Amino acid sequence: MSVFSSNNSLTARPSRLRRQPGSRPQRPSWDEEPGAAAKAGKAVVLAVVVLAVLGPLYTIVLTSFSSQATITQAGGLVLVPGEMSLSAYQQILSGGVVTRAVLVSVGVTATGTALSMVVSVLCAYGLSRPGSFAHTPLLFTLLVTMFFSAGIIPAYLLVSGLGLINTYWALILPSCISVFNIIILRGFFMGIDRGILDSARIDGASEWRTLTQIVLPMSKAVTAVIALFYGVGYWNAFFNAVLYINDSSMNPLQVVLRSYVLQGVSVAGQVDVGSGAAAGPALQMAVIVLAMVPILIVYPFVQKHFTKGVMIGAVKG
Amino acid sequence: MSTGTEHQAAPPSALAARTSTAPQATAGSGRKGMAHAAGRVRPKANLKLRFARDRSLVFMVLPAVVLLGIFAYIPMLGNVVAFQDYSPYVGIPESPWVGLENFARVFADGDFWLAVKNTLTITAFQLLFFFPIPIALAMLLNSLVNPGLRAVIQSVVYLPHFFSWVLVVSVFQQIFGGAGLLNQALRANGWQPVDIMTNPDTFLFLLTSQAVWKDAGWGIIVFLAALSAIDPAQYEAAAVDGAGRWKRIWHVTLPGLRSVIVLLLILRLGDSLTVGFEQMILQRDAVGAQASEVLDTFVYFTGVQNGDWSYAAAAGLVKGVVSLALILAANKIAHVFGESGVYSK
Question: Is residue B90 classed exposed, middle or buried when 0-12, 13-18 and 19+ CB atoms within 10 A define those classes?
Fold first, then answer.
């Protein structure tokens, strides 16, 4: 039974990688040069797309760093850089609700990702050899959960029955493994040259040693990508917390972001209002930026590893 | 089924060559030796021997299976509350059984059907206005000759996929909300501000725009991979035969994307009853339940919020079973049309 035969596409890149390294890409001779109008049309569409993504982020980041005077002058969001100020960040990071929420989110994300990766890598490797003991029933056990999910009510009753309500484990355990991620990892492990694994076995390496010393070092790119998927999942999780956490002091950042930006709870009302407090919009933007920052930091690495993953595949193929 | 158990001669790699000098010492003794003997035994011949050989692999899978058992399979059984009048104070064993009463109530409930209607409307709308965008964008990107430019644009359009829904809705709030950038500009020029974020009549467009902003860029990744798998010789042959740009798209590009499009359509259809749960929860206060009630929110609010557990579980179970039927049916249709679908035997 093969599921998601296209799963390798997650680490795929367009055709340029197929070209010879070093050769300058150029239009093939049979392809006619597009007309000026077509070129301009393409450029406009792509510019609009890029602007639609980056424009909002630009103004939000800029506003978060702007001083009260600049924001008042702009009438809300700032488009042209004026006087800069860090007071919004100083205010939300000097203890209080936002600071605590950041710590909760960081802790849950770090613990959760580590646990998810250990369980997923082990499972994917254990299932990477069709024909091994109980391979098909075990795989089937995983796959069934992709097609039928139990629903919110029984999940809630279970978590509450296990006594996990108002614990950080409720934010980790129910979403600890993604079968989809395991299938991607498994696909990659299955693609590793059998000869290498067999020779390790002949050398007397146990499965554990083969996994940690041979397979994992060969799979850095794909494990990085999957770790990022898990990490982003934990960092972004919002509904789990709404469902399982009633104690507002345990709320992760996404829930706090919602209450400040979407439910209009005043940030300043929750934080010590000192003299020279930052403007409301700047505080809101600063919370948005905080929720974005970890993703912006790790994102370039995702990109790098996407490329690398394909290069390994290309060398193998 | 057989490939895994046959430990055939490794291709001559450096590692294999090195090991050939001293394999007997390890392979000849203990379990490892058995493992290699087992490789020649027919797979089903000796379960005990196979377990002895593969037990580390089985142990590796166990943590995941235990977690799934607890957090995926036990809740499946927990759906029995749909057939009870469940009370959290007495628990599942003591709660009285009521047969199909909850289901009868669900099907007679106008609010449930409103949720069904909203869910299906949103799915249909997004199939029309979301689904084609990644395909078009991927084809556009693929037509760029400069790989550097293409990589930059890819990095930009993938990014919002990694943002949470809270963040995406917050960003929309800052741009289109009452105090947002758009209305700020309108007011500055003396125009009437427009109501986008809290208007139930245009909520469908808002939802779809948010989904497009977040995920349309990420959606192109699959299509780019499929496009790169099309043999350039096909384009060349078509061009030599006199096919122009549009004819090549129609006769080479689109057929090349066909199986991926079918696969994603199946997945989307199987997920017809699941639409933007977090998006709805986040914006329910702003636009009201009439526009934003979908099946998942219906289950959540009747169950967890109002404590009508059995009733909500019944609605959730209906959703789960119908979704399963949908994905199986969609896959069947794909097989009939000669596509491989999501899974194959």
Answer: exposed
* Window A:273-312, CB contacts with B under 8 Å: 281, 284-285, 288, 291-292, 295, 299-300, 302-303
C-alpha span between B85 and B94 (Å, rounded): 10
The per-residue pLDDT for B169 is 93
**Cβ proximity of B31 and A201 under 8 Å:** no
Both B119 and B56 in a single domain?
A: no
Which residues of chain B make contact with A155, given a CB cutoff of 8 A? 71, 75, 78
How many A/B residue pairs have CB atoms within 8 Å?
Answer: 363
Type of residue numbered B261? I
Closest residue on chain A to B134 (Cα): A49
Q: 3-class DSSP state for residue B23?
A: coil
Domain assignment present for residue B217? The answer is yes
Identity of the residue numbered B236: E
* Residue B155 sits in the same domain as residue B36: no
- State whether B188 and B132 are in the same domain: yes
- The CA distance from B131 to the nearest CA of chain A, in Å, is 16
CATH assignment of the domain containing B200: 1.10.3720.10
Q: Report if residue B90 sits inside a domain.
A: no
User: How many Å lie between the alpha carbon of A241 and the closest alpha carbon of chain B?
Assistant: 12
Asked if residue B226 belongs to a domain, the reply is yes
Domain boundaries defined on chain A: 40-85, 89-316
Query: Residue A48 is inside which H or E element, if any?
Result: helix A36-64
Same-domain pairing of B106 and B175? yes
Contact assignment for A6 to B155 by CB distance below 8 Å = no
In this structure, the answer to whether residues B108 and B196 fall within a common structural domain is: yes
**Do B105 and B79 share a domain, yes or no?**
no
Contact residues on chain A for B225, CB-CB shorter than 8 A: 6, 8-9, 12-14
Strands (E), chain B: 343-344
pTM: 0.83
Asked if the Cβ–Cβ distance from A9 to B226 is below 8 Å, we say yes
Tokens representing residue A62 in the block: 């800029």
Chain A from 39 to 98: CB within 8 A of any B CB: 42, 45-46, 49-50, 52-54, 56-57, 59-60, 74-77, 79
pLDDT tens-place values along chain B, 345 residues long:
333 333 333 333 333 333 333 333 333 333 433 444 344 445 556 788 888 888 899 999 999 999 999 999 999 999 999 999 898 888 888 888 998 999 999 999 999 999 999 999 999 999 999 999 999 999 999 888 888 888 889 889 989 999 999 999 999 988 998 888 888 888 888 888 888 888 899 999 999 999 999 999 888 888 888 888 888 888 888 888 888 888 888 989 998 888 888 888 887 887 888 888 899 999 988 888 888 999 999 999 999 888 899 999 999 999 999 998 998 888 888 888 777 666 654
A270 CA: distance to closest CA in chain B (Å): 19
B207 domain-assigned:
yes
Q: Top-level CATH class of A89-316?
A: mainly alpha
Q: Exposure pattern of A115-148 as b/e (b: 16+ CB <10 Å)?
A: bbbebbbbbbbbbbbbbbbbbeebbebbbebbbe
CB atoms B213 and A154 under 8 Å: no
Cβ–Cβ contact A269 with B under 8 A: no
CB contact under 8 A, B78 and A150: yes
- B163 CB neighbours in chain A (<8 A) are 236, 292, 295
What is the Cα–Cα distance from A285 to A291, expressed in whole angstroms? Answer: 10
Whether residue B223 sits in one domain with residue B150: yes
Please give the Cα distance from B255 to B252 (Å, whole number). 6
B175: containing domain: 101-336
| Counted domains in chain B | 2
Cβ-defined contact of A129 to B181 (cutoff 8 Å): no
Whether residue B166 sits in one domain with residue B20: no
ipTM above 0.90, yes or no: no
